[in-house]
Amino acid sequence: MTTSTGDNMFTLQPGGSVLSRKPKLADLIDQASFRDLLKSFSELYGIGVKVFDQGGQKLVDFRAQTTEYCGLMFAHYETKVRCTKLVGEVKSCELDSPSPEAKQCFSGLRYRVGPIYLEGDFLGRIVYGPFRPETLLRAPGELQGLAPDMKQQQANDLLVQIRPIAERAIDAVVLHCQKVVDTVIFSGYKALVASQMHIESITAAYSDLEERNRTLSQANDKLREMDRLKSNFIATVSHELRTPLTSVIGYSEMLLEGLAGPLQNEQKDYVATIMEKGESLLQLITSILDLSKIESGTFKLARNPVDISLVAKASLTDVLPQARKKNLNLVSHFPEGGQLFLLDEEKLHRSITNLLGNAVKFTPEGGTVELKVQHFDGSLPKESGKGFDPFVPENNKWLLISVRDTGIGIPDDKLQKVFEPFFQVDSSSTREYGGTGLGLAIVRNFVEAHGGAVWATSELQKGSVFSIAVPFSCAITK
Ligand code: ADP
Fold first, then answer.
1. What is the phi/psi pair of residue 406, to 5°?
2. How many CB atoms lie within 10 A of CB 365?
3. Residues 6+ apart with CB under 8 A from 2
4. Both 308 and 292 in a single domain?
């Protein structure tokens, strides 16, 4: 991770807090402002200033009026060699004491070299100079010995152009500058520590979050796998239960028909109860099997040309016996024309039967259940979740199947929930109506697989309307 403080880039090293690492000089200063600060010193006092970091890399370099005099020294071999040697020493000499050290140049000029420390760690050095001491009025005579070609007069002329500075004055200037630099570096260090601590805490929080995410996603994978196993288990068990149950129902039927000899009335009643309970158990197992297929994503539509009116009539026939028992008035309307649609007949049949079965179940004696199949062109009610498409009129055509009853109704806040698996408005153990709470969940999945929608509207104690809309685009054009 990398962050920046001003124009100063600092890289967060892996495996170590900023407090346990030795910072570099360049990390602690804003280099542009630091250069400006030392430039103003250099200009104010007329002395050059250079700053080197711990590794000898130059961060600041301002020269004063000594350039020409030093240039003359550099123009002669022996003095050039000496000059280079001295500069190397100034750059790398051991600095044992915190106070600046004086270095004398053979040219008569001088340096002060001051260390930069941060909490006892050596970070670099500031080199002040070269400057001309107040007492140096002429170029040293030994220069002639080193460079016989050098013109004494020229050396003197260049020397006197350099503003002299008293030793006491230079000590005061250097001390002042050292203090300012120390303060700048210490505040830089404080800012760096604060920002790094911040980054470190965010990094720690982030990796903590990442770790939690990983754990969560592993837990999720496990859950998904367990869910898959559960669905497989349910599918297998339900399948295995169906076979013997079908035999129970079949043999009960044969007994009732007298195939194994005549039964007394009481015996007939018992066998009829066995058959009835067996049938509702079979229905429950079929629903669970359907739901497990839906959940595991293994159910597929088998579309065939279907006359929906015939399918709806077959559903009506299915619920006729119960409707008769309750003395219900069954009403139906079908469109004319026998239009064929590419639908999964069995799934549509089961969906309509389910809605009709509920209507019959939840409508008291003498009530009415009305089934209506129609071709609908327009905007479906908002409960359907299907918006109106103004750009493609074909998308607003539907095959609409609705089942209206005059039953007990459903409270508003439960209207959406009735489509969730196992949800029942009355789930108490003393509830009046039988059922599993799976029917509508299955209807919704079957209808949505056709690209359609199912929804309900209801008024308590007045009745409910359950509607299925299937896109008209599955109509077969002759
Ligand atoms: P089940 O009927 O087996 O309980 P469903 O999924 O078919 O399961 O229905 C879920 C619940 O929705 C029912 O238990 C009932 O509370 C409510 N419900 C469904 N249809 C109607 C209806 N026509 N009138 C009143 N309540 C209904």
1. -110, 40
2. 8
3. 9, 10, 11, 12
4. no
Q: Where are the alpha helices (DSSP H) in 338-430?
A: 345-361
pLDDT at 76 over 60: yes
Looking at the fold, whether 124 and 259 belong to one and the same domain comes out as no
Q: Is the distance from CB of 53 to CB of 116 less than 8 angstroms?
A: no
Tell how far the Cα of 424 is from the centroid of ligand 1, in angstroms: 6
Give, for 227, the enclosing helix (H) or strand (E).
Answer: helix 167-256
Q: For residue 102, is it within any domain?
A: yes
Specify the DSSP class assigned to residue 412: G
| Residue 248 Cα distances to 263, 278, 438, angstroms | 17, 7, 24
CB atoms within 10 A of CB 473: 13
Residues with beta carbon inside 6 Å of ligand 1?
354, 358-359, 362, 405, 407-408, 410, 418, 423-426, 435-441, 464
Give the pLDDT score at 423.
Answer: 92
Structure tokens at 66: 């000594």
Identify whether residues 155 and 241 lie together within a single domain.
no
User: Is residue 41 within 8 Å of 200, Cβ to Cβ?
Assistant: no
5 occurs within a structural domain: no
* Residue 369 structural domain: 304-474
What is the model's pLDDT at position 227? 84
Q: What stretch of H or E contains 82?
A: helix 77-92
CATH code at 163?
3.30.450
Task: Supply the residue whose CA is at minimum distance from atom 19 of ligand 1.
Answer: 358
Q: What's the rounded Cα separation, in Å, for the pair 473 and 475?
A: 5
What is the three-class DSSP state of 404? strand
In a domain, 12, yes or no: no
Block residue for tokens 């500058």: 177
Task: Determine, yes or no, domain membership for 13.
Answer: no
CA of 463 to the centre of ligand 1 (A): 12
Find the CATH number of the domain harbouring 243: 1.10.287
| C-beta atoms surrounding 403 within 10 Å | 25
At 99 the pLDDT is 85
Task: Output the pTM of the full model.
Answer: 0.58
Q: Which residue has the higher pLDDT, 20 or 432?
A: 432
Same domain, 362 and 470: yes
| Closest to 283 (Cα-Cα) out of 250, 256, 246, 254 | 246
- Measured CA to CA in angstroms, residue 477 lies from 63, 221, 342 at distances of 94, 46, 10
- Phi and psi at 123, nearest 5°, equal -110, -20
What value, to the nearest 5°, has the Cα angle with vertex 460 and ends 455 and 465?
A: 30
**Placement of tokens 């007492």 in the chain:** 135
How far is the centre of ligand 1, averaged over its atoms, from the C-alpha of 358 (Å)?
6
Q: pLDDT above 70 covers what percent of the chain?
A: 96
Q: How confident is the model over 262-284, as a mean pLDDT? A: 93
